[in-house]
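Customer ticket, subject: "Can you confirm the structure for Phytoene synthase?"

Message body: Hello, I'm evaluating your service for our small team and ran a test protein. I'd like someone to confirm that this is what the system normally returns, since I don't have a reference to compare against.
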Amino acid sequence: MSGGHSSFYWPMRLLPKAKRQAMFALYGFCRAVDDISDGDFDTDTKRAKLTTLRAALTTWQQTGIALHPAIADLAPFVQRFTLPVAELELLLDGMETDVNSPLTAPTMAELSHYCRQVAGTVGVLAIHILGRPDARDFALALAEALQLTNILRDVAEDARLGRLYLPKECLDQAHILVQSPRAVLSHPALPAACMALYTKAEAKFSEAEALLAQTGKRHLWPPLAMMAIYRSLLRRLPRRDWSAPPPRLGHWRRLLIALSAAWA
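Agent reply: Thanks for trying us out. I re-ran your input and got the following:
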């Protein structure tokens, strides 16, 4: 997916130059990792690529030599914005989970841990770039809300890839006893399971709002834009067939939301 079509594009593009460059470098690292995890490679190749990237990250930490372009792009901003490199390692942990042991009807606790790995990491790094490391709890709550929205949006696509992120508690609540991704996708109670996770996502957005009220909005308009974009998307999801391709917010709609957040 090109940057212009990403929900993250305008909230990043409207930042001051140094922060914008740092955000796009972080986005580039995330895309490099994600392209390995979701790419058309066999499992052994994915493992090898992730191992190589992790080794390159370790080498850069020890020697200052960046052997991977995504690390080279991000490296200048690590010291400038005091980025915690441990978050990049945790992100790799999450992607290795996707490759080595993809989640299939995880418990809610397991899903929350996965969200921390693949989304919370990015949120923590982003608020350092924005100069608001004190807003960590807000960033983590929002990141989980965004990731749960992604999971609900991509239920059908994930099932076709053999993945099932809907938690066991939601399946049990809907009386879905099967755990095969394709079987769940065709189950008549799928909407009930999705709505159970929808409730969790809405609660996480509300938690993020409450934490934001405590920390204040200063310098946090990009995550506020992401919150508005994704919450708008989340609320569109129940209107469609959960087993069908997801709805998308248009390019200009995302720009308008980003501008509204920037000028709020």
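A couple of notes from the result: Confidence is low (pLDDT under 50) at residues 1-5. The chain has one domain: 3-262. Feel free to reply with more questions.
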